[in-house]
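Page 47, continued from p. 46.
Same chain as before, 146 aa.
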Amino acid sequence: MNQICIGPAVIEFGAATERSTDATAGNCRSDHSKGQGAWQPPMDIIEYEESYRIDLDLPGIELADLGISYVDEQLQIKGLRNRTKEGEDSRFVRRERELGEFRRVIRLSKPIRDNGIQAFYKQGVLTIRAQKAERAIPKSIEIRLN
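Result:
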């Protein structure tokens, strides 16, 4: 099982380099100070023999504000974290949580089945399970005597 954590942009699983990674803890951090625009939630991609599992940390995002699609062999995840409403008599002293839209586009190293994608959202974590296409699963071929 391979596990990598990759920063923003279109990624090629197994071919991309890690960005903004804390090597001691294995944590990904996006670098918003370079004007990359939309925020990027942290993500882990885990490869199994017959599938992938993708976990995204999305606390504070409503299920209705999330979307997943699979187009041209790319898994696309979009979402929106809205600003919290504060009273007129209050102000933020410090605000570190990212707001607004995000978009992650993932191209895995092996093709996945169109109908083999499932998504679950629990306690602020989006988990996507994607089954590899039949042609991507290694097989042993039996050799018979003639």
